[in-house]
Write a structure and sequence with these properties.
The protein is mostly helical. It has 2 domains: 1-71, no CATH class; 84-159, Tetratricopeptide repeat domain (Serine Threonine Protein Phosphatase 5, Tetratricopeptide repeat), CATH 1.25.40.10. Helix content is 85%, strand content 0%. The protein has 7 helices and no strands. The protein has helices at 3-20, 22-32, 39-82, 86-99, 104-116, 120-133, 138-158.
């Protein structure tokens, strides 16, 4: 579980404590009231504070779910790529990159899609962007770039 997930769970639990165990909240406030809030505030606004904790925790957990959905879309993009449905795979990758512009995995797959679709200039630009964002991918990308350069030179010589 990520740090966002842990924070989200802590916030939701804190919110539930505010709702269902107000005496625990008052005891905690007695310990830290010098620094945070007084008992009166805890009693008068306990449910509001609890709601804020629960909503914030929910937002943290939803961000994890959204990230998981994004990874699931990448899976479908790879599936379409391996089925040679390059248009569908490209559309999914572009959608992913629209939401998360520096997603290296989606960008790398998009480069492979362009390469397989013989869109060599787009493939080259995409692979160069991958390397600029994630230098660790340089070895994988260089193999494609060498082939792309030879294909582009061949096309140039034929014209």
């Amino acid at each position: 579980m990520t740090i966002r997930g842990i924070i989200g769970l802590i916030l939701i639990l804190s919110g539930l404590i505010y709702f269902y165990l107000p005496n625990v909240v008052v005891n905690v406030y007695q310990i830290i009231k010098k620094y945070l809030l007084d008992e009166k505030t805890a009693i008068l606004n306990g449910k509001k504070i609890g709601l804020v904790f629960m909503l914030t925790g929910t937002i943290f957990l939803l961000s994890i779910v959204m990230e998981s959905v994004s990874q699931n879309k990448l899976y479908y993009a790879y599936k379409e790529y391996y089925l040679n449905n390059f248009d569908k795979a490209e559309k999914i990758c572009l959608d992913l990159l629209n939401n998360k512009p520096n997603d290296v995995e989606s960008m790398f797959l998009l480069g492979k899609i362009y390469f397989s679709s013989q869109k060599y200039l787009l493939a080259k630009a995409t692979f160069l962007r991958v390397v600029s964002i994630a230098p660790s991918k340089k070895d994988k990308v260089e193999k494609f770039l060498k082939v792309i350069d030879s294909k582009l030179n061949k096309q140039k010589n034929e014209n």
